[in-house]
Write a structure and sequence with these properties.
The structure holds two protein chains of two kinds.
Chain A lengths: L5 E4 L1 H14 L5 E7 L2 E8 L11 E3 L1 H13 L3 E10 L7 H5 L6 E8 L2 E10 L6 E3 L1 E3 L9 H5 L6
Parallel strand pairs in A: 1-3, 1-9, 5-6
Antiparallel strand pairs in A: 2-3, 2-5, 6-7, 7-8
Chain B lengths: L1 E4 L13 E4 L4 H11 L4 H4 L10 E5 L2 E2 L15 E6 L1 E3 L31 H6 L1 H4 L5 H10 L1 E5 L5 H11 L3 E5 L24 H12 L4 E5 L8 H5 L4 E4 L4 H14 L3 E7 L2 E7 L7 H4 L12 H4 L5 H18 L8 E6 L4 E6 L21 H4 L2 H4 L14 E2 L1 H9 L5 E4 L3 H6 L6 E2 L5 H4 L8 E5 L4 H12 L4 E5 L2 H8 L8
Parallel strand pairs in B: 1-5, 7-8, 7-10, 8-9, 10-11, 15-19, 16-17, 16-18, 18-19
Antiparallel strand pairs in B: 1-2, 3-4, 3-5, 11-12, 12-13, 13-14
Helix pairs in contact in B: 6-7, 6-12
Classes of the chains: A alpha/beta, B alpha/beta.
Chain lengths: 158, 501
């Protein structure tokens, strides 16, 4: 068993994701996670462009994806993954999430029940695409990018 | 050799490089070479059927290959090919709390596995030929059991659709129809049998489907589908199958599918030719992208007027059922953006490519139709066919009833009667003394008729002969009377010994 992958998010990042989920409720929100070595240092809110009903779906357009990747580089980090909300649903990935998941990326899901953000979880696609593996969210008090690798250096990528 | 730009999540498979070289003359060859060099990429780029995954976008110099030649898009030396993710996801569709219509049949298949209904031992036996196929399997069969399909019409197309979907184990099968079984239906509508003639089609269909598979919940909606009830009717279902035979209902079904976000497994049949496609999906075109406007009323004859080969709905309906099953399973390549045309006489399939029209009034980027409209009016059906007056009274300057015609013939009057149907119809039944001039031949044979003589024209039910009458008047005929209700009314009122069709 590979070590459980950990993602560090600071209180400000945690708050930004929750607020975004509450703002767009009852629709899903989505955004990019930017950082380095599995420590999220910034989030980039992205427009939800799904045409399938934003209560249950989110879609990041290729053009927005490109921009997120560019922004991440500009900020001196890399694209670590994406977050989205599950309005009135638990913070567990759906089959749809699995079917559309990319490897390596961290997928943070925040459950927004009746307009209030609740559970937040993080998931990683298994290499064979068979399922997600739950990671752990480390709410480090000081998510400064320079300190993060030192703290979590041994967590290792699977 | 071309350069391929690799997105962040795939870089672990390319030794962390953000750009790699690969060779090939087309995008398909290039990607094949790429996955040969970096084996871990294959499972993320391609699905089990070897198709590029829907959320993998490939651009050649900033152009999406979907709008070029897809994987056949040529690649020249120096071109830059980019793999760009669409990032998508969302809550499980098996919602309990919200009012949104389920969108589960769209792309990812339904829900998380635990939410799918289990199979009983009997069902496992019944569906064993599905269960041993990896593309279906137990999970797929459970998706089918959770699946809800609404079939508009329980006639020619609805028969094979409903029977095969029931046999395949679709959990909930809705049927909309309000007709009764007629003898003339039995040549193709295999849901119904000879003892069912005169029964409601839905009662007959329910018996047949329950006998075929008692595990299926058959939901009957004995109503005429309308702008008032369509959205509510569609709401509980995952896929809508259009088995209608007229344009107002076809546009209504299309628009309601777009508005509710349900895919439309479309089919239509006429004589020896059939069509099929999947409309109104998120990524694909709708029926209006193909035909923004209906044809002028009367231009395209219905099956009742033009006839249809009995086995044809079998072929087209089974294609629709196949597409519904694929949509629910989330496997294969659906008929999205592809318009299949089948010619039974030549036994040939042709395929047209369709694109979503950004200016489409319903599914375009700035839709002008945002709720259901009056489709009879849209298709020009009502103005062309005003409220029919009772058949025993006719406008005496342009029309005549069959009873009046009989009385005049009985009085010994010499009345010129022209039958504008086709020769094969004339062989089935006719008004004694009538002369056959098919509608299409009327202009070139007009000099066989005397413009000063009174002429009664008729067809099967009065539509074609009204056109013939208009034409004859336009070229100077003094008195042309259209027989109201056509030969069918003649048989009803005057000569019941003749067969009807």
């Amino acid at each position: 068993m590979p070590a459980e992958r950990r993602i560090t998010i600071g209180a400000d990042i945690d708050q930004a994701i929750r607020l975004h989920g509450q703002e767009t409720y009852p629709h899903e929100c989505c955004g990019a996670l930017v950082g380095k070595d599995d420590a999220v240092t910034a989030v980039v809110a992205l427009p939800n462009t799904t045409e399938e009903g934003p209560r249950r779906r989110f879609l990041v357009r290729p053009s927005d994806y490109r921009q997120a990747e560019r922004r991440a580089t500009e900020m001196g980090g890399e694209l670590l993954g994406f977050y989205h909300s599950h309005p009135d649903h638990p913070a567990r990935p759906s089959q749809y999430d699995l079917d559309h998941a990319w490897p390596t990326f961290a997928y943070i899901i925040v459950s927004v029940m009746n307009g209030a953000a609740g559970d937040m979880t993080v998931w990683f696609l298994k290499n064979d695409r068979s399922s997600f593996e739950e990671g752990s969210l480390d709410h480090g008090q000081n998510p400064h990018p320079d300190t993060a690798p030192a703290v979590h250096g041994q967590a290792g990528r699977s | 050799m071309a350069k391929i730009l690799i997105p962040t999540p795939l870089r672990p498979y390319t030794d962390k490089q953000d750009a790699v070289d690969a060779s090939g003359a087309t995008v398909g060859e290039l990607l094949a070479d790429l996955t040969r060099r970096h084996a871990g990429l294959k499972t993320h780029l391609y699905n089990e059927q070897g198709k590029l995954r829907s959320f993998v976008n490939v651009y050649v110099n900033d152009e999406d290959i979907r709008y070029l030649q897809k994987e056949q898009t040529p690649v020249n030396a120096g071109d830059t090919v980019s793999i760009i993710p669409s990032v998508a996801g969302g809550a499980s569709a098996s919602a309990k709390a919200t009012a949104d219509p389920p969108t589960r049949a769209r792309e990812g298949g339904p829900t998380v596995l635990e939410d799918l209904p289990a199979l009983t031992n009997d069902e496992i036996k019944r569906y064993s030929r599905h269960l041993i196929m990896p593309e279906v399997g137990v999970e797929g069969q459970r998706k089918l059991k959770a699946g809800k399909v609404l079939c508009i019409g329980a006639g020619g197309l609805g028969s094979p659709v409903a029977m095969y979907l029931a046999a395949a184990g679709i959990g909930t099968l809705g049927l909309v129809d309000f007709d009764v079984v007629d003898f003339s239906n039995l040549q193709r509508q295999i849901l119904h049998g000879t003892p069912d003639v005169g029964r409601s089609k839905l009662a007959s269909a329910r018996d047949r489907l329950q006998a075929l598979n008692p595990n299926v919940e058959v939901v009957t909606h004995e109503v005429a589908i309308s702008s008032e009830n369509a959205l509510k009717l569609f709401e509980p279902y995952d896929v809508i199958v259009d088995g209608t035979d007229n344009f107002p209902t076809r546009y209504l079904v299309n628009d309601a599918c777009v508005l509710t976000g349900k895919p439309n497994a479309y089919g239509s049949i006429f004589r020896f030719e059939g069509q099929a496609s999947v409309f109104a999906t998120k990524e694909g075109p709708c029926y209006r992208c193909l035909y923004p406007e209906p044809p002028p009323p009367g231009l395209v004859p219905s099956c009742a007027e033009g006839g249809v080969l009995g086995v044809l709905p079998g072929i087209i309906g089974v294609i629709q059922a196949t597409e519904a099953i694929k949509l629910i399973l989330g496997v294969g390549e659906p008929l999205i953006g592809r318009f299949l045309i089948f010619d039974a006489l030549r036994m040939k399939f042709r395929e047209l490519k369709l694109k979503k029209d950004p200016d489409c009034p319903v599914c375009g980027t700035h839709p002008t139709v945002t709720q259901l409209i009056d489709y009879e009016q849209f298709c020009g059906v009502r103005p062309a066919a005003p409220e029919p007056a009772p058949l025993n009274s006719a406008n005496s300057t342009t029309e005549i009833t069959s009873v009046e015609l009989k009385q005049r013939l009985d009085r010994g009057e010499k009345v010129k009667i022209v039958d504008v149907r086709e020769p094969n119809e004339y062989q089935i039944n006719r008004i004694p003394g009538s002369e056959l001039i098919p509608l299409g031949d009327v202009p070139k044979r007009v000099n066989e008729l005397n413009p000063d003589e009174e002429i009664v024209v008729h067809c099967k039910s009065g539509v074609r002969s009204a056109k013939a009458a208009d034409f004859l008047r336009s070229v100077g005929f003094k008195k042309v009377l259209n027989l109201k209700g056509g030969v069918l009314d003649w048989i009803d009122k005057v000569d019941p010994t003749q067969p009807k069709y």
